[in-house]
Write a structure and sequence with these properties.
It is built from 15 helices and two strands. It is mostly helical.
Length: about 325
């Protein structure tokens, strides 16, 4: 894991492309209040009734919070990075320290490196030779992750492993920024788990289990968000998802729009997309998926593509 650089110097840095007309972005402030309110409400509901539906709501809200953290990383809703940071520091989704996620995600916005397994932190691919060198079980798991069910049930384990594995190497802790990021995150997480159990009766073990499914739901958005292609713009999908999916993922399904204008707030993305739909589909080589539901059903057990394949200097494949 690299050091935590000043993200303001990154070409996809927070507030890039923001218009003065966005002002204080009241829809995002409303969203923040809604997410935190529903999270507390789900805890209260479970504490009063031990209703399983409250746990389902907690998973949904925590995944929604991860979408909010993505907005905060990109400089919303305030003009002050320190305030946006603190709005996303709460470890509701447990695993990723906000500062580490910020650095990793902004590195992902180097479009020329998208899908490269050794350079794109969010790549879903491995080099063919690396894939061939893995044992049979690991190859099977990597293939399973290219199905929708595998993405939901298996990919969170891989993501958590990749996140935590460096913590067991001495060199990782030489970076004071990384030490500080994990110290803050670990302290907040311990306090949150204690408070959740005291307030609602949800044990730390149960909350960690719920957070696993929260991560799976969040990972579903990026199941086929990028593909290998020679033209970097052809690597980025447009998914014309339904309303509930768009709300859960804060319009990040229009992913080519987000990469083109990373500083555009979530609630302005659909209007821009539909106004310039032909332009964006021409730019991304027609990489279009028409909704998540049927797509996930079609690939519930059928891999969308191979996990081990070349990711450099390839012609764009036909649309899914």
């Amino acid at each position: 894991m690299p050091a935590l650089p000043d993200s303001s110097a990154h070409p996809a840095s927070p507030a890039a492309g923001r218009s003065r007309l966005d002002g204080w972005e009241w829809p995002t402030w409303l969203l923040i209040g809604c997410i935190y309110g529903l999270w507390w409400g789900a805890l209260a509901w479970y504490g009063n009734a031990q209703a399983p539906a409250a746990l389902v709501l907690l998973v949904l809200v925590s995944a929604w919070y991860m979408s909010l953290q993505h907005e905060l990383v990109h400089g919303h809703p305030s003009p002050w990075p320190w305030l946006n940071r603190w709005l996303g520091m709460a470890p509701l989704a447990v695993w990723y320290p906000f500062d580490i996620y910020r650095v990793s995600h902004l590195a992902h916005h180097r479009d020329e490196l998208l899908t490269y397994p050794d350079q794109d932190p969010e790549s879903n691919y491995t080099e063919p030779q690396d894939f061939a060198n893995h044992n049979a079980l690991l190859r099977a798991l990597l293939v399973a992750q290219r199905t929708a069910l595998g993405r939901f049930f298996i990919s969170p384990a891989f993501g958590i492993f990749r996140l935590l594995r460096p913590l067991f190497t001495r060199s990782y802790w030489a970076d004071p920024a990384l030490r500080w990021a994990w110290l803050q995150h670990g302290t907040l997480l311990a306090l949150m788990l204690w408070a959740v159990q005291a307030y609602s009766g949800i044990s730390p073990a149960l909350y960690l289990l719920l957070s696993y499914f929260c991560l799976g739901l969040a990972f579903m958005r990026s199941f086929y968000e990028h593909r290998p292609a020679a033209n970097p713009q052809h690597r980025i999908v447009i998914n014309e998802a339904g309303l509930l999916w768009r709300l859960l993922y804060l319009n990040n399904n229009y992913h080519a729009v987000h990469h083109a204008q990373a500083g555009l707030p979530w609630y302005r993305i659909p209007a821009l997309y539909w106004q310039e739909r032909a332009h964006f589909l021409q730019q991304n080589g027609g990489f279009l998926i028409q909704g998540y539901g049927r797509f996930f059903l079609r690939h519930a057990l059928r891999p969308i593509d191979a996990p081990g394949q070349p990711t450099r200097d390839l012609p764009a494949p036909p649309p899914a």
